[in-house]
Amino acid sequence: MRKRFTSPAVLAFALLLCATAAQAQVPPAAADKAAKIDELMKTYHGLRQFNGAVLVAEEGRVVFRKGYGMANMEWAIPVEPDTKFRLGSITKQFTAALVLQLVEQGKIKLDGKLSDYLPDYRKDTGGRITIHQLLNHTSGVPSYTGRPNFFPEESRDPYTVSDFVKKFASGDLEYEPGSKFNYNNSGYFLLGAIIEQVTGKSYEQVLKERILDPLGMKNTGYDHHGALLTKRASGYAKTPTGYDNAPYLDMSIPYAAGSMYSTIEDLYLWDQALYTDKVLSARSRELMYTPGLRNYAYGWNVVKAPLGGKETTIVQHSGGINGFATIIVRIPESRHLIVLLDNTQGTKLQQVAQNIARVLYGMPTQPVRLDIAEELMATILAKDVAAAVKQYRELKATRPGEYDFAEPQLNQLGYQLLQMKRVKDAIEIFKLNVEMYPQGFNTYDSLGEAYMVDGQKELAIQNYRKSLELNPQNTAAVEALKKLEAK
């Protein structure tokens, strides 16, 4: 299963920091830290695990900012600190802030119902969902990015806000509002529609007037494909032999859930403003950072980890959208900040951010490992998938510390093979992933999808059911089973 502009930052950041927190020592000088971060980023870039811009602030002061690789590979234009990247789901924290501003003004109530603000929305569901539940992903509304074939069939077409809400954000509830967490782009799309309804202005205009202009974020905005935008990074997808231009996405689709662009420097301005009353009052900031189910607050994940010898709150969020991957990590107690913006759909940003945090706290960094997916793809292209499976087993047994054997590696490889129309090979890779990670719901989901593409209906159903057994909130599996069982 693949998702775009849908991924929140996860507990892995805090958990992996915990593993070495006890080893923290007196922090070295800022210049020494900057040099270590630079060497770290050069290593990630050299292994094709990062291509973009990074900014690190310590105690509110920028100690490192730099670009790595190309903003435009066809014209060999390098990434600079002021290069503009699409943010994906980092947009959600801005949408949440706009909602909280309107709450402060009495125009929206957190316990108000969805249908109170969108009168045309279906009353049987809209009358049961609160604004609070939309903000923290507990509304029960199905997420449109979880619909099978949404991206290949729908994501290139422009929609008005009202038409999109009717077609993609008005489905039957998946669960009773407030009872479960399910990361949900439809919820934030609906929040954007509510902002427009309440203010009488477009989401883009409200964002500019209420946040971007007051904070001087001149290099941030709502992205439009057709608009001329200076220093805009092009988005790429990593391939076995290099990079391809990322698939086109009409920016009316991510909307208030993921359509913004920005720079590392502007996101530093955003970070600094969140320590003041420039955007939100102290009470609203407290609400924004109060975690609910699965540690999700309002547009942020809020977790705790032992840093500097004590339990410390980490506020973070990631984003993924065609051609781009992003993450912002804030440690409010020390005013540390890590911003990573990547234009090659980088999958290692959590690990990169974790290692940078270790540098800030004087901890030893985790080793940077090779991607096993790249090694196996080279073997498949040179020989066959059987040789690659054999190679995987041998390398995992003999060189486990040299390669990244995490679950997403084989998943990524399998989808690359699907895109290359090598469906049988993809099935073998997904089967291997199921064997290695039998408790991972996504491994069965991906294998089910490959069987479905191959026309093996019963095996597809079997694996989708297993995925649902492991994760009842996997809406993609629910939709796939509906179609398969209907046939």
Protein described:
The protein is globular and about 65 Å long. It has 2 domains: 1-367, DD-peptidase/beta-lactamase superfamily (Beta-lactamase, 3-Layer(aba) Sandwich); 370-486, Tetratricopeptide repeat domain (Serine Threonine Protein Phosphatase 5, Tetratricopeptide repeat, Alpha Horseshoe), CATH 1.25.40. The chain has 487 residues and is of the alpha+beta class. It has a 6-stranded antiparallel sheet with strand order 2-1-13-12-11-10, with helices on both faces. Residues 18-28 have low confidence and may be disordered. It has helices spanning 12-21, 30-46, 91-104, 114-117, 123-126, 131-135, 150-154, 161-168, 185-199, 203-215, 255-258, 264-273, 282-288, 349-360, 372-382, 385-398, 407-419, 423-436, 441-453, 457-470, 475-486, and strands at 52-58, 61-68, 70-72, 77-78, 85-86, 221-222, 236-239, 242-245, 260-262, 301-307, 310-321, 324-331, 336-342, 370-371, 403-404. Helix 3 (91-104) crosses helix 9 and helix 20 (457-470) packs antiparallel against helix 21. It contains 21 helices and 15 strands.
